[in-house]
Amino acid sequence: MTEIILRNVAKRFLLPDREVSALEGIELTLPTGSFTALIGPSGCGKSTLLRLVADVLRPSEGEIRIGANAPSVARRKHEIGFVFQEASLLPWRNVLGNVCLPIEVARVPATRDPKALVHMVGLAGFEEARPAQLSGGMQQRVAIARALALDPKVLLMDEPFGALDEITRQRMNLELLRIWKSTGTTAVLVTHSISEAVFMADTVLVLSANPGRIAHRIEVDMPRPRRLEMMRQLAFNALENEVRAALFDDSGAVA
Amino acid sequence: MSGARQGLIGALVPPMLVLLAVGLGAELAKGLGLLPITVPAPSQVAAMLPTSFDDLMYHGARTVRSALTGYAVAASLALALASVALAIRALERPIVSMAVLVDCIPIIAIAPIFVIWIGQGPHLHVTVAAIAAFFPLLVGAVQGFRAIDRNMEELFHVIAASRWQRLCKLAVPSALPYLFAALKIAAPLALLGTLIAEWMGTDRGLGAMIVLSLFSFDVARTWLTILTVCGLSALAYGLIALIESRVVTWTGPADGGHGGR
Amino acid sequence: MAATGGAEMSGTVSRPDARLLPGRQAEAERMLAALLRGLAFVALLLGALVLIWHALIVTLAVPAYVAPSPQAVWTTLTGEWPRLSQALWFTLRSTLGGMAIALVLALVLAGLFTLSDLLSRAFLPLIVILRTAPILAIAPLLILIFGRGQATSVAVVVMVSFFPMMVNAARGFRSPKANVLELMHVCGANWWQIFLKVRLPFALPYIFTGIRMAAAGAVLSAMLAEWLSGAPGLGTLILEASSFRRLPLMWAGVVLSMAAATTLFFLTVQLERRMTR
């Protein structure tokens, strides 16, 4: 059981002259093995929310649970996988070396074969390549394989495909869904793309800014496995429109 | 691979041609009597080499030893201070400010003071060499440790890496390109520091050889000695660059941004 | 997320607000305050240094030949001021003159390099290598060539200052993005217009960085040249004072040269900071 639970979470940042509230009153339960997308205008705190769950930041108020544990405990038990917007690979290590990094750091016998992971993200034959030799999409695949190296219970992704072109992005989306299904992790995806959010998630959470709150919650009742053809269906478009309406709802402008 | 080699040749040939042209031009100008007596023809300098070779080896050995020791001292000190700055971020600015201040002080001004404090001799040469090489090394090390990507730091936090793991697997590799850039710049400076200290007065060392030749107005020998110093510094630079190209294989050469003297 | 992370954390509003930009007067006041703070800091630092110096000499009973007391140096500084100021002025003239000549040379050559790719491919690598070479080592050669007057000092400063200035200027002239150059080309600008309106403004921060780098070594170079050639500047003064064991005079010369070098350096740092902001 690895639900992610947030109870009345708030995050405020102390600036020299004032206090800024990034997130207020976040109440969430993300069920085990679910896929959740976070979407909202710049400055709504969606990245902050992700970093709170990953124990990179501490909440100012409230409580977060990953399964039965606090995020700091889950982190030390290597239950969290994190994918950044930039691939953030160590340039001096090759593909396999980057995927092995969390295993080396944790000093545990590998629960997954790193080579199999590289294979799973479709980079068989590139094990010895350096990050600089890879395209943006390939680098992001390595980052995903690295995040999965210790078989994490939760997979947190901060706009992982934001820098990719539309075609690569859709291909990566399909791959990610396949990987997610085969690992059974609880996934959270921060994204700027409405269609990506609807295509990937079981639940799309729309955040509003100043302070960041969960303004809307949209359940995506499309069947799985998702296929690209579904994006042409009316039901898909209706969901997209629902998200769009929610985004433009209160502020009237999206930054 | 052949493309890279072609690029290398393309990069090397024009400057080599310029060097060759300068040498030939000097030879020709000298032959036509256009150059003053203080500028010898390249062939005259080359002719000095056989007779001066033993002298060059004798003096050069001492200079190289002093410069190397000073260089090693400066590098260890710079690394230690930069590590302190990395561990205690609040100390980074004071350390760098102090280093800038020290770098502003003309070596020539403090060399006589060091003569009084530690006397003439190899200790003085090593000390001045270390002072001359210290600043770029410190700046390189501090910059290198500062160059750690923020996302990488978060990544190492998320995968629960220890302090030690962060140092070995993240901080040191990140800093390597900067460290090598600094090591390259500092090597000629250490040599120069040794030379200046030797000019203060010593009987053995390339600096002494230069002063001796200069005062006996042995023009070709002065040129030869100084060209040897330049050759040594180029050699040191090249050696470090070679090691760098073997170690730092993942990035182009970083620029330390601090010039020589 | 690194770029927007900060903004997200601070909760920026969605529309930029021009009123948030600092006004001209506020800017001037801020700079004045910073200047005063800087001066106060320097005064404090100097005071502290002198105090520590004094305390060390008193507590450790340092003999005068190891290090004289601050008072002794001050007495010499004021008593021998005509001689010291003359030497300082000589050294400063060589330093500033040499830097000015080097700057003009560097700018002209770096400008020429933008004309021809072959030219820069042939010369720039040599200049980059020479920049890291111990240029000062060839000072004795310059004495051979230029004799024992001020010309040698100036020549040494030119040699040493030229390379960092040149390398930075060349880098600066090449720094405009291809887009900007293409835009000027499409607008029908000629080489000279492109140089004046694009390359030079883009290069200014680089040029000032070059000046700052040169300044760090310029006083040192001038003094070394005097030292080797015997021209009447601070370098010679220090050397003679040390060989005649007139230690307070030597220390006064050392303090003066340090002050000159640090002042020059921090002036160029300030200049660079204003330019690169």
Q: Summed up, what is this model?
A:
The complex is a heterotrimer of chains A (255), B (261) and C (277). With 261 residues, chain B is an all-alpha fold.
Following the backbone from N to C, one meets helices and strands of chain C in this order, namely HHHHHHHHHHH
Roughly how many Å is the radius of gyration of chain A?
Answer: 18 Å
CATH superfamily label of chain C: MetI-like
Which bin fits the share of residues in helices of chain A?
25-40%
Could you tell me how far the N terminus lies from the C terminus of chain A, measured between alpha carbons in angstroms?
Answer: 38 Å
Separation of the first and last Cα atoms of chain C: 25 Å
The assigned structural class of chain A equals alpha/beta
Helix content of chain C: over 70%
CATH architecture name of chain C:
Orthogonal Bundle
- Report the β-strand fraction of chain A as a percent range: 15-25%
Number of domains of chain C: 1
Quaternary = heterotrimer
Uncertain parts of chain C: 1-14
Comma- or semicolon-separated keywords:
heterotrimer, A: 255 residues, alpha/beta, Rossmann fold, six-stranded mixed beta sheet, three-stranded antiparallel beta sheet, 34% helix, 24% strand, C: 277 residues, mainly alpha, MetI-like fold, 11 helices, 81% helix, flat, disordered N terminus
What this model shows, in words?
The complex is a heterotrimer of chains A (255), B (261) and C (277). Chain A is α/β, with parallel strands linked by helices and 255 residues long. In chain A, 34% of the residues lie in helices and 24% in strands. In chain A, the strands form 2 sheets. Chain A has a 6-stranded mixed β-sheet with strand order 5-6-7-3-8-9, with helices on both faces. The longest helix of chain C is centred in the C-terminal third of the chain and has 39 residues, at 191-229. Chain C has 11 helices and no strands. Chain C is flat and about 75 Å long. The chains are: A alpha/beta (255), B mainly alpha (261), C mainly alpha (277). Chain A binds chain B through residues 51, 54-56, 75-76, 78, 80, 82, 84, 86, 88, 90-92, 101-102, 104-106, 130-132, 150, and chain B through 149, 151-152, 154-162, 165, 169-170, 173, 176, 248-251.
